[in-house]
């Protein structure tokens, strides 16, 4: 491997591996260029030649469509897209996988945690962690940047009382929905009376 100063200020590395030439410019010192070059060579020898232009948002979107769309429950799939939306709305979305590290990811989680409850943060972090575990397995990255991430919720989680309605409220809601004559009202009435969820209906077998 060769390293050289190409404009009097910046350094580059250059080497050939299995008939293909690899070169990268823009390093401040010879030592930095040499270190990056050796890392790249090591990745190639271990089969980790990834797409340097692949961003987190592009990878996560493709991951959902490829591995999750047809196998997860509706609520889980919806949360994956909720997570994708937040990735896209944050600058981390445009960060290339090859540049994503623990510090960048921790800052994203710190920002996300300000306005969300602990359970939402846990699910969001879990989704991204799973996606990046697959990226490691596929050889796109060396390490998972979500490792040992920490967070503190900015919003408190809802109490059990806030999550559920009382029996009196349940009866009032059922009577109100029963008077409506729309498809959505019928669907709600069935859910209220049976406790059935949409994800459950999807997998029901109907015996004609």
UniProtKB/TrEMBL annotation:
GO MF term (any one): DNA binding
Listed Pfam families: Phage_int_SAM_5
Domain Core-binding (CB): 54-136
Protein name in UniProt: Site-specific integrase
UniProt xrefs under Gene3D superfamilies: 1.10.150.130
Transmembrane segments: 186-204
Keywords noted in UniProt: DNA-binding, Membrane, Transmembrane, Transmembrane helix
The keyword Zinc appears for this protein: no
InterPro entries to which the protein is assigned, alphabetical: CB, DNA_brk_join_enz, Integrase_recombinase_N, SAM-like_dom
Record has Magnesium as a keyword: no
